[in-house]
Design goal:
Length: 358
Amino acid sequence: MHKLFACKKEKKATLSTRIKTIAIAFAMSVMTLMPTMYTYAAPQEVAQAAIGIDVSKYQGVIDWKQVAASGVQFAMIRVGYRTQSEGILTEDPFARYNLQEAQKAGIKVGVYFFSTAVTAQEAIEEAEWTCNLIDKYNITFPVAYDCEGYLKATSRQYPLDRACRTALAITFLDTVAARGYTPMFYNCKSSMDFNRDWDMSVLASRYKVWVASYPAVTFPMIPCNYAGVHSMWQYTSSGAVAGIMGNVDMNVSYFNYTEIAAPKNNSGATLVTAPSPIVAPVPIAQIQFADVNEVVTTTATDLNLRSVPDASSESTIVGKLKPGDMMFRTGIGNNGWSRVIVNNQIYYVSSQYLTKVF
């Protein structure tokens, strides 16, 4: 889940006050659409709207004091993900800092995990990993299951059908509930409409639902255009909030909590410093490629073939090269990447793993 730059704080504060006022009235009108949820991790859930954001490493180092002053009431923080190709559990490098600083600023916190589980064992592993990471923090809002990209042929989840995907989500969310957190399912409107990719008749009856939908005219002007039962709406990916450089996802929840939840583990989280900012990939137009016309091969196992000459995101992986695979190389970049032709398409491979054949 991943923007306008923050400016003119005085106007933002006024705007956020108006939005919250409208949101409260708006939420009260839709509460009748929400089912009764049976797992409440935080003290005293109330039918009251709240304005929030969701963040990950892509927002860089956030000034959480400014975020709180702007009127943001809660934050859904990505704690980690399982990689799309290798299936490795990976912590978001900004997770602990964001949890620590948002909590310190008085913002209510929830979290989400980006899953690519393909077995029940992996779904349990993801949920336990998430709960173990967050148990020393004040997690008041839900713990959400986020699963995307499964319709891409390069995804390890590509072979799964709707029933399998739904069962894995249930396994993750039930494990979270057993650890004392409120479970919530996240996905986009199109994937949930008419149960296209998920069995929403089951998921919405058991868990809170967080829907992403970005209509041209959006909150607070109109209600969410997703007709299914839901408890939270991600209404734009282009929000601007003081303290965050660039765009950020904005959300409205139709519930809030009167208090901040205590940690499950009272031993205290280790204090962390702000991580180094994520360096944006260099645009292809700025990379100098020396033109060549040669055949190359690789001896590396499962070498990533990418759509861009950068390795910062799993989403750019379009395939794998095996030892002995040969291809035409048309350019050698000054950034350590080679431009190659595979199946009549231009892709990029790390130059250090390629050997010239002729």
